[in-house]
Amino acid sequence: MTGSETATAGAPRARRVPHAALAVAGLVVASTVTRFAAAQAFTTPWIAPDEMVYGMIGEGLWTHGTLTLRSLPSPYYSLLTPALVGAPLAAFDLDTGIQWARLLQSLAMSLVAVPTFAWTRRVATTGWAIAAAALVLTTPALHYAGFLMTEPLTLTVVTAALYMLARAIAEPSMWRYGVFVAWATAAAAVRLQALVLLPAFLLAAVIDSLAARDRARLRPLLWFGAFAAFAAIVVGIAIVATGGELSSRRLLGAYTPVGEAGVVAGGRLQEVLWHAFAIAVLGLGATAIATAVVAWRVLSGRDRDPATRAFVSTTLAYVGLLVVQVGLFSAVFVGTVAERYLMTAWPPLVVGTAVWVSRGAPRAVWVVAAVGAAIVAGAALVPIDQLASPTTLPNTPTPAVLDALGNGWGRAALVVVALAAVALVALLPQRLAWVALVAVGVGLALLSVDSGRRIADASAHEQRVALGSEPPSWLDDAGVRDATLLLTGDQLWTTTARTIFWNRAIDEAIRVAPETTPFPPLTTSVDIGPDGVLRTADGSPLDRDVVVAPSTFTLAGDRIAERQVGDSEAQGFVAWRTNGPVRVVLRREGFLPNGDFTGRALVTVYGCRPGTLDLTILGKTGDPVAVGIDGIAVAQLETPAGAAVTHRVATPPYADGSRPCVFALDNPGYAGSTTIAFSPS
User: What are the E-state strand segments in 434-567?
Assistant: First the structure.
């Protein structure tokens, strides 16, 4: 042999990338591109206030290292999602940052195929593992990748945690327990809901021990439990020693109301049943039935594979606790089925279906009959508006098509799909079991197309209603900086949330008592004095240079920017340059955003002194408008239909600037208005 031949023969062989890894990588890339392309039709942000919260906290995290809404205070919400979406938002302008955030979210959510493949590979062949990785990417829930939400990371990280839990159950050891806890901690850092993984861990270990008929499998768990309790005590002592507190608000942050919620009434427990049915809806019924057959084979001892037993134990424990958790939460805080909180049950259902197919689609007639009957009963009994209505789309995208069918046809379609799922699992020849995977995948893909179109329409409509079609960053575009936003209750709260998100000029939000608002979550309040001066809790005047208020307020100062009502359905905004303490000159109530009014409308002039209230009224029905001041009738304003008349109503003799005057306009018909202003004598 020549020297070159010897060198060639002795060289190590290049390691080839397995075809399966290439296939899964291809699925992830294809899903990322598809979801990112679909997101181009969406208007982001859409889901208020969640997206505003995560996006702005992310900006604050990357800009000045704090979990705040830019400079606005905020309780704890999440860490990893703001870290993911906040980087591009902080690095670019908001439009560009949202596009990069969508791409990152699409990738993060599509990566759920990786733990799904790895988990399925332990309990089925490589081919079926690839099929499971493909199927898990077809769910309409992946549309959340187009928004600044926790769902993308939650789906992937929780699936990885469940996979690690199954491995720890199959082969118990302190190392595997620790790996699972690390993933569970990461999942909780995305969304605190993932803390349900910890009791699921304990329940899964018990189920596995019972299924294996071996109590000795619980011994490693006892040692780990003792170690965890010791670690929790040490951490608690450290927190107290450093001056911290162990209150629910410190531990749960913005989720404190969830932990403090009272006991749910027995009648509301039906929400748990509807969410149990929604688990079946995730996979069009067939995946739940197939997974139930696999679980029965393990629990009855017909399948003794440790990895499959661990999968079944993990799935039963997690899905069962998840349904109870989400059902009770929704009963108090949502009121309808919330698929977005259940979607982490989807990957285990996919793995279970792949196992069922790989085992030759075993028949378990009574299991299929029992579970199928429960699903059909749920389809026949669940209120359609629990699953599909104009208000449920942000929370439950999979059955959104039912809203277009109406109650009657929607109910019929739901029952037909349930019966088809039972027939698919019970009657499909074993050699054609793969058809079940294809049928579910195609069905979910079609539902993804439909729900994507609905989300595009709904998100665009929500933006138009709240802000109109003009650029939402009107303050920043006008060069305004360091502005204080007054929250008065005259605006749609979604308008307020979007205005703060799109305008970095707003670095403070103050609530005018007694109004409340869900966003921002933490605000200070001020009161309007008789003279119109805004005062803080200690009675001192509020002193700010630039104040943004709804157009229903007239402040003392100069207008420097304005957002007109336009084609929105919310009041406009005006930015004021104040000269001294912030003072309200006039407030309008009971007027539509376009100035129209009917019934009673109020105009309050603060620090009322001699002068006139000037009203330009547009006659529509031509009815006279009765005017009263502080409850005393003073005038009848006649405005013929089709005419525009400016009326001047004098203030009462006692108007000396020490108190407000309240002008009541009673209109039995319908009228419009343009100028409403106070002119001092």
Answer: 483-487, 506-512, 524-528, 534-535, 546-550, 553-555, 558-563
> Residue 170: in which H helix or E strand, if any?
helix 151-170
Ranges assigned E (strand) in 90-245: none
pLDDT grade, residue 330 (50/70/90)? confident
Measured CA to CA, the distance from residue 609 to residue 607 in angstroms comes to 6
Average pLDDT over residues 344-364: 93
Per-domain boundaries in the chain: 19-255+280-460, 474-585, 597-680
Give the span between the Cα atoms of 95 and 112, in whole angstroms. 27
Q: What is the pLDDT of residues 594-627, one digit of tens each?
A: 999 999 999 999 999 999 999 999 999 989 999 9
Return the percentage of the chain with pLDDT > 70, whole number.
90
Class of domain 597-680: mainly beta
The pLDDT score that the predictor gives to residue 227 is 59
SS (H, E, C) 38-93: HHCCCCCCCCCCHHHHHHHHHHHHHHHCCCCECCECCCCCCCHHHHHHHHHHHHCC
Q: Is the pLDDT of residue 257 over 80?
A: no
As beta bridge partners, residue 399 has none
Closest CA to 480 of 369, 408, 424, 561: 561
> Which burial class, exposed, middle or buried, applies to 538 when counting CB atoms under 10 A from its CB (0-12, 13-18, 19+)?
exposed
Name the more confident of 129 and 405: 129
Q: In sequence order, which residues have a C-beta less than 8 Å from that of residue 216 and are 6 or more positions away? A: none
485, 585 Cβ separation under 8 angstroms:
no
Rounded-to-10 torsion of CA 667, 671, 674, 679: -30
Q: Give me the pLDDT at residue 429, please.
A: 85
* Strand, coil or helix: 515: coil
Question: Among 348, 370, 338, 341, which Cα is nearest to 274's?
Answer: 338
Tens digit of each residue's pLDDT (9 = 90 or more) over 74-133: 888 889 999 999 999 999 999 999 999 999 999 999 999 999 999 999 999 999 999 999
Q: Which residue has the tokens 């009322």?
A: 608
What are the structure tokens assigned to 639, written together?
């405005």
Cβ atoms of 129 and 120 closer than 8 Å: yes
Whether residue 175 contacts residue 207, with contact meaning beta carbons closer than 8 Å, is answered with no
